[in-house]
Write a structure and sequence with these properties.
Number of strands: 3
CATH architecture: 2-Layer Sandwich
Number of domains: 1
Distance between the termini: 24 Å
Strand content: 15-25%
CATH topology: GMP Synthetase, Chain A, domain 3
Structural class: alpha+beta
Helix content: 25-40%
CATH class: Alpha Beta
CATH superfamily: ANL, C-terminal domain
Largest sheet: 3 strands, mixed
Strand order of the largest sheet: 1-2-3
């Protein structure tokens, strides 16, 4: 919940996948998780296993692409953390707890 509004992380991930042209990737390249934020209640963090330019420029470019596609500004991650691989459980599902630890800087 950000600023009193429920933000569906999966919807945000789908929008990012489309904006970044990742629809045909076999391995998961991104995850969106929430971390506590004193002002808004929660802040969205993008965990990215993509290689590219400087993180600040990438997140700014992504922000503009998502706004152009009509995603509400509150739903756009404010920060990106680059990792070598997105944490996945043995079941093949996203390891949300590990992603949240990464986002909070605990790993």
């Amino acid at each position: 919940k950000i600023g009193g509004e429920m933000v569906p992380h999966e919807t945000v991930e789908e929008a990012i996948i489309k904006a970044m042209g990742l629809e045909n990737e076999s391995a998961r390249k991104i995850a969106v998780v929430g971390v506590p934020d004193p002002d808004k209640g929660e802040a969205l963090i993008l965990i990215s296993a993509m290689t590219g330019g400087p993180e600040n420029q990438e997140i700014l470019d992504l922000r503009y692409r998502l706004l152009e596609k009509g995603l509400p500004p509150l739903w756009i991650p404010k920060k990106m953390i680059r990792v070598s691989d997105i944490p996945i459980l043995s079941s093949g599902k996203l390891d949300v707890q590990s992603c949240e630890k990464l986002a909070r800087g605990e790993v």
